[in-house]
Every structure is written in C-alpha cells, then in structure tokens.
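Hi support team,

I'm filing this because I wasn't sure whether my run with inosinic acid finished correctly. The job status page said complete, but I'd like someone to confirm that the output block is well-formed before I use it downstream. Pasting the exact inputs I used:
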Amino acid sequence: MHSLNGRKIVVASHNAGKLREFSDLMAPFGFEAKSAKDYGLPEPEETGATFEENAYIKAFAAARATGLPALSDDSGLCVDALDGAPGVYTANWAEKEDGSRDFGMAMQRTEVAMQQVGATEPAQRSGRFVAVICLAFPDGEAEYYRGEVEGRLVWPPRGDLGFGYDPVFLPGGHDKTFGEMSAQEKHGWKPGEPDALSHRARAFQKFAEARLGTE
Ligand code: IMP
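And here is everything the job wrote out:
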C-alpha cells in the first residue's frame, strides 16, 4: 500500500463548494492540499455509471498529471420516489444550454419530477446524499470511501448556506436543512469527535480513520 507520508495531496475537483469542504475537513491534518484547479488541470469527462467509477476517473487523472496522490469526491442526491435519480447525474440536472450551472433550476427540476410522480407527502420524499471519495496514486492504485446521509426533500428551498442542493435536503433527525447549517454543523465532525453528519464528512471520516490514523 502506498503511503501518504509526503503529506502532499491534490484535491481532484473544480467544484468550489466541495473544495471549501475538503479544505475544512483536511485542515487539522497538516496536509498541503492543492486543487486540480490550482494545477491548471482540465476537468475530465465523467463517463462512469457509478459514483465509484466517476470518482476514479477524476482522482486518477489528477494523480497521473501531477505525480502526487489525489483525492476526489463523486457525489449526488438519490431520491427514492425517482428511483434514485438524479444520482450520478446530479450535477448534470443543473446544466443550462450555455454550459453554466444553475442549482435553483436543478432543485426545481427535482421538485417537478417528484410532483409528477405524486411524491407530495413527507413520507414519500425520502432520499440520501451519497459521496464516494477515491484516493488514487500515479500508478493507478486506488481505494474508496463511501459516505451516505439519509433524509428527505423539502419544498420550498430553505437557507442560503452550503452549495448545490443543500437548501432542499433535510437530514433525518434534524430540523434544519443543510442550507441552514454552518459548515461545522453540516460536517458534524472533527478528529476525536463521534460521528460525522454529511455524506462527504462521513466518507472523509472513514478515509481519515484508515489513512490518517484518527478514530
Ligand atoms: P459531481 O460529484 O461533480 O458529479 O457533482 C455532484 C453534484 O451533487 C454537485 O454538483 C452538487 O450539486 C451535488 N452535491 C454533492 N454534494 C452536495 C452537498 O454536500 N450539498 C449539496 N449538493 C451536493
């Protein structure tokens, strides 16, 4: 197994929201974390059919291009009433014709799709955020850490914190959406503390326990 002793890692993402969350999560560990964007790397096309495949495409492309270990995250929102959609296509649902992304539109699209299948009662609006973190090395070796958080979708959107679909996601057992939570509340975790809350922090917690020696 390759080591991370060099404490230099590339975060294989161009997504500002994810980069901010990774830098929060990694801050306690003394890593020099630069993003794929800092290295001027192009965004690879996500052609996989699973979160794991897309996470590997991103992490391996960054590791090969920089010669450093790379950490990626492929994530999405899976709505039960929509048979798991938008799932791996969560970012695509936000794409406009000019190529830019509009998450207000994406949340609306998800809501319209749920209304069309009659998912109007809270009990019919369950779903989860999923994040798969891939750690890949320049020779192609890779490992995966998956985090999920169960919850339900609310309408209208609530809160303007976080990013993406955060304002419509109410995690189970909480009365604030992710869009109403501070970053610290949304992650719900730092080293030495019990369980993480968000899908990304749960995946990161597994990575940290396996690779950074923290419980
Ligand atoms: P991808 O992993 O680049 O394919 O993009 C995943 C998409 O899922 C992002 O563009 C976000 O819209 C959405 N997403 C993933 N994680 C979160 C989150 O923590 N909050 C809100 N939206 C998220």
